[in-house]
Amino acid sequence: MIVLGVDPGLVNTGWGVVSLEKITTGEQIKAYGCITTKSNCLLPERLGVIYKSLTQIIKKYKPDTMAVEKIFYAKNVKTTLLLGHARGIVLLTGCQAGLSIGEYTALQVKQSLIGYGRAEKVQIQNMLKNLLKLKEVPRPDDASDAIAVAICHLNSSKYLQITNKAGF
Amino acid sequence: MIVLGVDPGLVNTGWGVVSLEKITTGEQIKAYGCITTKSNCLLPERLGVIYKSLTQIIKKYKPDTMAVEKIFYAKNVKTTLLLGHARGIVLLTGCQAGLSIGEYTALQVKQSLIGYGRAEKVQIQNMLKNLLKLKEVPRPDDASDAIAVAICHLNSSKYLQITNKAGF
Predict the structure, then answer these.
(1) Which of B37, B77, B105 should be substituted to probe chain A, the one whose Cβ sees the most A Cβ atoms within 10 Å?
(2) Which of residues 147-166 of B touch A (CB under 8 A)?
(3) Beta-carbon-side half-sphere exposure of residue A3 (alpha carbons within 13 Å)
(4) DSSP label at A165?
(5) pTM of the prediction?
(6) Residue B21: which pLDDT band, with cuts at 50, 70 and 90?
(7) pLDDT at B23
(8) Architecture, CATH, for domain B2-165
(9) Residue among B44, B78, B88 whose CB faces A85 most closely
(10) Taking CB atoms and an 8 Å cutoff, what residues of chain B touch A166?
(11) Domain residue extents for chain A
C-alpha cells in the first residue's frame, strides 16, 4: 500500500510518499518534498502550480490512497480563506486520480504516532526519522508533517477498510 | 468580449455568461445558472463536480475573461474554509483555460452597478433585469450575483486593459 500524505498551504504544500509492503518490515519512505509558490505570483497561478505539481507526483509515485491534514482554524480569516483555496486543489487532485482520501487533524496524527495528542513537533520528527530509518529528520517541516499524516493514515488503514473511494 | 462571472460556494456556485459586442447595444446575457453539490457527498467529490461543471461551461461559452467575487469574511471559520476550497477550484478552472481573472468585492460590484456600495440585493437584481432586457429577475440569487460581478468586470474592462493573463 502506497500513501501520499499532504500538508496543504498556499506558500508551502508538503508531500510525502510512504509505502507499507509488509507490516513486519514497517513503513518505507519513497520520496518527499515541498511545493513552493511565489508570493509575487497571482493567486490563480499559484493554485495552478500546486495542481500541476501534485498531479505529476501522483502520476510518478502511483499512490493507492491520499492522506490530508484536516484543519479547523487558522491564524486569521484571510489565512483561513487562502489555506482553503490550496486545500481544495489538493483534494481535487486526489479525487481526479480516483484515490480514497483520509483526513486527519494534527491531534489525531500526534496520537497515532506518539500516543499523545500534544506532542512537540521535534518529537514527531524524531519518531519519523527512527521509524523510516532516515539519516536525518525530514525537512522542511511541511514535508515532515505530510509524512506524519501519511503514516497516521497507514496506521488507520491497517485495521480499517477505506470505503470513501471517490472514483472521479 | 465575453465574460464568465462566478459567485463561488460549496453548495451553490452561481455563474453567468455576459457578452458586450458593441458598447452602443449594451451587455447581453448568453446563459446563466447554478452548480449545486449535495451535502451528503464527500468534500473531494463536491469539488470535483464544481471543477467538471465549470470546465464544461468554459468549453461551451468560450469566455475571454473571468470575474470572481472577492471575499474577506464568512459567517464562521468552518464556512470560510469550505468557501475557500470552492473558490480555489473556480480560480483553477479559469487559470487552466488561460483566462484573465478579475476579482471584485461585493462593495465594488454594487458601486459599479448602482453607484452605491450598500445597495440592496433586490435593487441589483432589478438593475440586471433592465440592463439585460430580461423578462424576469435572474434566479437563483447566486446566478444573479455571478451576472452582477461579470457586468462589474465589463464596466472596468471598458476603460482598463486587463493585464493579468495567467496563460496556464
Answers:
(1) B77
(2) 164, 166
(3) 28
(4) B
(5) 0.90
(6) confident
(7) 65
(8) 2-Layer Sandwich (3.30)
(9) B88
(10) 42, 44-45, 48
(11) 2-165
Residue B141 known to be catalytic: no
Q: Which string of DSSP letters, residue by residue, matches B32-89? A: EEEEE--TTS-HHHHHHHHHHHHHHHHHHH--SEEEEEE-S--SSHHHHHHHHHHHHH
- CB contact residues (below 8 A), chain B span 36-95, against chain A: 42-45, 47-48, 51-52, 71-74, 77-78, 80-89, 91-92, 94-95
User: pLDDT (tens digit, 9 = 90+) per residue, A18-50?
Assistant: 998 776 677 899 999 999 999 999 999 999 999
Q: What is the pLDDT of residue A105?
A: 93
Task: Evaluate if residue B34 carries a pLDDT over 70.
Answer: yes
Contact B100, B139 (CB under 8 A): no
Span A55-81, mean pLDDT?
A: 91
The reported pLDDT for the residue numbered B119 is 84
DSSP at A119: -
